[in-house]
Amino acid sequence: MNDFTYYSPTEFFFGRGVTDKVGQKLAARGYRHALVVYGQGSVVRTGTLDRVKASLAEAGVKVEELAGVRPNPEIGLVREGIEIARARRVDCILAVGGGSTIDCAKAVAFGAPYDGDVWDFFSKKATIAEALPVACVLTIPAAGSEGSNSCVISNDDLGMKTGVNSDLFRPVLAVMDPELTFTLPTFQTGAGVTDMIAHICERYFSGVGAVPVTDNIACGLIRAIMDAAEVLVDDPQNYDARANIMWAGTLAHNDLAGCGRSTNPAGRAGGWESHALEHEMSAFDPSIAHGAGLAVIMPAWMRYVWREDPQRFLDFAWDVFGLEPKDGREPSIEETVLAAIDELQDFFARQGMPTTMGELGLTPEDVDKLLPTLAKNKGEVFGGFKKLTMEDAKAIYLSAF
């Protein structure tokens, strides 16, 4: 087990009806003026936003609003939120939504105290030094942004999608009511569980050998997510399944599943190759849901790199799917590894996820357009499990058609 630092300061307020107590929780922390950030309509249609605002009003918390966050949130709206936060002198940012909304809120939070343009942080021209407190009411379990130190934002003008990490903008409070997820469409649920599993796999396949405690947490989370997701296919309002998925999404990305797996004690485990490859896809076409892109590209990455450490993939095959070689011969090892990857992709497909790049609306001719920004974001060579060149990246993309 490698050295590590684990930090998870978020207060998680989890259960039925907790949405109606968000005002009370914020007021107890001394916050009196919130910028409420939300998306493009679902929290309005379902009444969740009204419940949140009523709770804030009852607790004496004044409200400003930033509406219209899209999937793959864009820097333009972040800049609008920063102007509101500064002009109205809010003392906290409250996201009501999923990962995109929370990431937009985080960017507003660390952009508001900064004198320059917030994109400076994403282009690595500046380092985050302070941030307004962030809280959230989670409505879409997926990204784990409610407990993570991650923030990913798109810049349509530059055709880029990139992220920053800092403990300064980890949410101080996450309000998590599984009943809010009862009405999620099957596609959104499937994209969410795919993202969760990808967060775990990025850490599991970090290029570090076995770390039994962390590996058992990781594989147990994957099995729990898959079991709950299979229940929801036939029973979408099953509270226990929704609750297990919601909590698993948090644990998948608050770094618990990576403890002892990083080569840098202060850094996140893994090279995050699949996320890097997918970010270019959804930057190129923002209509591509992040989870849907991962459902295609992560199995393709696995098939390309597994020979770098076959034992790691055999451990994954056994601990997640109960698959093992019939003997120690190489053909049997290969069959087992590929069978496990197929099982994983078949699970994604049962959740309504695509299996090819073509299903995402991309063509082989588009691949060369993804590589320049990938190199700009990650460098000409990147990766933790296996170092990838731009030629490797191109091969992985093309293998997914």
TrEMBL record:
InterPro entries with a match to the protein in the record: ADH_Fe/GldA, ADH_Fe_C, BDH-like
Superkingdom per UniProt: Bacteria
Entry keyword annotation includes Protease: no
SUPFAM superfamilies: Dehydroquinate synthase-like
Entry annotated with the keyword Oxidoreductase: yes
GO molecular function, a single term: alcohol dehydrogenase (NADP+) activity
GO annotations of cellular component type: cytosol
Residues of the Fe-containing alcohol dehydrogenase-like C-terminal domain: 192-400
UniProt keyword annotations, A-Z: Oxidoreductase
Signal peptide start-end: none
Domain Alcohol dehydrogenase iron-type/glycerol dehydrogenase GldA: 9-178
Protein name: NADH-dependent alcohol dehydrogenase
